[in-house]
């Protein structure tokens, strides 16, 4: 683990392998450990950067400064710190929002864009988004983070054979600082690209699970609004596809990187 000073905070990151750069961005309430099944696989052929986004893991947890735009600026400053000019940004869930914002605001840094069970407009998801914002804020304020972590982990990994994955994710989530989690969540739900998505020209892969929170049609709709994007669907997978179907995910990402 290494630390970099960016945007008046410290980011914790890991840097593995050599070659073209893969930047892996984790989901809300998690850490760079989301990518434990990807780093060993891809670091054989690529330089892999994983990072704890602000408010998460071993990175700084500021009192008030949160939001997708700030997280994106943190990541850009980290790349500058490492003298990295081009990356393939792979963003899972909240990390997908950061990757989308990179494509919209800092496209010169991107060779490819990979969006995993995420979307371009968390502030415009219709009833799904409204219900999630209302119910999760109420849950956090009345029951706290630990019961929420248990519920999220069960929803992501409900199968009997997934108990170990479930327990690991629950522990990771409940270890969050409450204020950091809360502010990361509400600022994420206020973020969206809007019409900027039409201007993204970066070659893009969107990965969707067949049992994700949002349906495949949700991903198809925004892929159709993009200039250079394609969709792949992973079967028998829920939200945490990089964790619950790592072999399939890794193969799909490898094919995309190899232009297959």
Description of the structure:
With 260 residues, the protein is of the alpha/beta class. The protein has one domain: Rossmann fold (3-Layer(aba) Sandwich), CATH 3.40.50.1820. Helix content is 41%, strand content 19%. The protein contains ten helices and eight strands. An eight-stranded mixed sheet has the order 1-2-4-3-5-6-7-8, with helices on both faces. The longest helix has 17 residues. It comes from Winogradskyella epiphytica. This is Pimeloyl-ACP methyl ester carboxylesterase.
**Radius of gyration over alpha carbons?**
17 Å
- Overall geometric form: globular
DSSP helical segment count: 10
What's the domain count? 1
Helix content: 40-55%
Sheet with most strands: strand arrangement: 1-2-4-3-5-6-7-8
Find the CATH topology. Rossmann fold
SSE order: EEEHEHEHEHHHHEHEHH
Quote the average pLDDT: 97
Beta-strand content bin? 15-25%
Which stretches are low in confidence, meaning pLDDT under 50 for 5 or more residues running?
Answer: none
SSE diagram, text form:
Blueprint: E1 2-6, E2 9-16, E3 21-25, H1 39-42, E4 47-52, H2 68-81, E5 87-92, H3 94-105, E6 110-116, H4 127-143, H5 145-156, H6 163-174, H7 178-188, E7 203-209, H8 216-224, E8 229-234, H9 241-244, H10 246-257
Parallel strand pairs: 3-4, 3-5, 5-6, 6-7, 7-8
Antiparallel strand pairs: 1-2, 2-4
């Amino acid at each position: 683990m290494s630390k970099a000073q960016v945007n008046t905070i410290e980011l914790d990151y890991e840097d593995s392998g050599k070659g073209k750069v893969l930047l892996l961005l984790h989901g809300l309430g998690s850490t760079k450990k989301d990518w434990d099944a990807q780093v060993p696989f891809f670091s054989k052929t690529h330089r892999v950067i994983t990072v704890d986004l602000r408010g998460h893991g071993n990175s700084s947890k500021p009192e008030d400064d949160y939001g997708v735009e700030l997280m994106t600026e943190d990541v850009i400053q980290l790349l500058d710190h490492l003298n990295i000019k081009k990356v393939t940004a792979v963003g899972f869930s909240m990390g997908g929002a950061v990757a989308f914002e990179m494509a919209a605001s800092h496209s010169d840094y991107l060779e490819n864009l990979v969006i995993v069970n995420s979307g371009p407009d968390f502030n415009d998801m219709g009833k799904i988004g409204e219900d999630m914002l209302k119910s999760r804020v109420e849950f956090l304020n009345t029951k706290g983070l630990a019961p929420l972590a248990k519920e999220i982990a069960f929803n992501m990994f409900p199968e009997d054979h997934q108990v170990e994955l479930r327990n690991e994710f629950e522990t990771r989530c409940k270890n969050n600082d409450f204020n950091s989690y809360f502010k990361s969540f509400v600022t994420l739900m206020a973020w969206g690209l809007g019409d900027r998505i039409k201007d993204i020209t970066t070659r893009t892969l969107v990965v969707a699970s067949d049992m994700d929170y949002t349906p495949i049609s949700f991903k198809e709709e925004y892929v159709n609004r993009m200039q250079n994007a394609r969709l792949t669907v992973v079967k028998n997978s829920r939200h945490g596809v990089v964790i619950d179907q790592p072999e399939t995910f890794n193969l799909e990402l490898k094919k995309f990187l190899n232009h297959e």
